[in-house]
Amino acid sequence: AAKARGRGCFARFEPWMEDRERERAALESDLRSAIREGQFALHFQPLVKIDSGEVAGFEALVRWDHPTLGVVMPGEFIPIAEDTGLIVPLGEWILRNAIMQAATWREGLRVAINLSPIQLRSPRLMSQLVTAIAHTGIDPGRIELEITENVLMQESEANVALLHKLRELGVRISLDDFGTGYSSLNYLRSFPFDKIKIDKCFVADLEQREDCQAIIRAVTSLAGTLGMDTVAEGVERKEQLDWLRQAGCTEVQGYYISYPFNIEELSDGRPLDGEREHWRSAIRH
Ligand code: C2E
Ligand code: MG
Ligand code: MG
Ligand code: MG
């Protein structure tokens, strides 16, 4: 979108933009029926404690199994779902299913669920959450709601009040993609988050980048002082993991630990490779 805007403030029309518009319009109309027809699936990616290597929980990541396009990633359809308000019913489906899934896991394992700013604006969010918790009987302390910095940019007072109300249910609140928004440090003062997720852009080439190292060190130390946990996202190499451990990061998440996967593949009876067997025994009682 930034590219489409070019140098000035006015959008310049380009032929490819028409294709994109058409693509988007098609996805938008398909999205309406997709929820009804159950075309969504949740994949889960492990979060691991950096010191012990123990599994702390899993983040739910939604995928759309489109009948003709195949798997569509959230980066493509979440913005459309947000613009159309479809994120509210979709978000409810995600919340309910992620919590139902987590309720089958071993006690203590957490589930992280991404919340869109639009969902936070919905008066239905609180009751959706209360219902899912009551329905499964899950310990609410096992639920981590992930929000991004932009939630605190607009309507920040109302949103901070809402975060406190959510917290009163006993759930935990994480700040996702930390460092990618504006005036990040200020947000740490506005709400006592349980956890900060350091965005993967700082982790990506941290071995070569002293600026990224300095930022991660500063964030982990600040978080420690404020009593917040830190997770590094996008860990793809052992060198990153080792560096993050000495930097005092609490948890890690990334392809080096595991890709997100469909947890139904772990159901009993199916043959599993060593890696999947590892995650299956981690979620077992
Ligand atoms: P996020 O919440 O920051 O999720 C992390 C993203 O990083 C996921 O992409 C994950 O697959 C990817 N990732 C994990 N490990 C690595 C790694 O080692 N390297 C790299 N390069 N990437 C890694 P995904 O699943 O495509 O999701 C993208 C974004 O879409 C999420 O970012 C989140 O903002 C949004 N999203 C995903 N699922 C949901 C959902 O259920 N609800 C809402 N509202 N948003 C969602
Ligand atoms: Mg997230
Ligand atoms: Mg993130
Ligand atoms: Mg991210």
In short:
The chain is of the alpha/beta class and 285 residues long. The protein has helices at residues 2-5, 15-36, 74-84, 87-103, 117-121, 125-136, 156-168, 184-190, 200-204, 210-225, 238-246, 274-283; strands spanning 40-49, 55-66, 70-72, 110-114, 143-148, 172-178, 195-198, 229-232, 251-252, 261-262. It is built from twelve helices and ten strands.
Our count of helices gives 12
| Spatial arrangement of strands, main beta sheet | 1-2-4-5-6-7-8-9
Task: Indicate the structural class.
Answer: alpha/beta
In sequence order, what are the helices and strands, one letter per element?
HHEEEHHEHHEHEHEHHEHEEH
Rg estimate, integer Å: 20 Å
Distance between the termini: 46 Å
What about the largest sheet? Answer: 8 strands, mixed, barrel
Strand percentage lies at 15-25%
| Weakly predicted, low-confidence segments | 1-7
Arithmetic mean pLDDT: 90
Name the hetero compounds present. Answer: ligand C2E, magnesium ion
Bulk shape: globular
Fraction of residues in H or I helices: 40-55%
User: Can you count the beta strands?
Assistant: 10
Organism: Croceicoccus marinus
Domain EAL: 24-274
Protein name: EAL domain-containing protein
Task: Describe the 3D structure.
By secondary structure, the protein is α/β, with parallel strands linked by helices. The chain is built from twelve helices and ten strands. It has an eight-stranded mixed beta barrel with strand order 1-2-4-5-6-7-8-9, surrounded by four helices. Helix 2 (15-36) packs across helix 3 (74-84). The radius of gyration is 20 Å and the shape is globular. The model is unreliable at 1-7 (pLDDT under 50). The site of one magnesium ion has 4 residues, from loops. Residues 24-274 form the EAL domain. Keywords: Membrane, Transmembrane, Transmembrane helix. This is EAL domain-containing protein. GO terms for molecular function: catalytic activity.
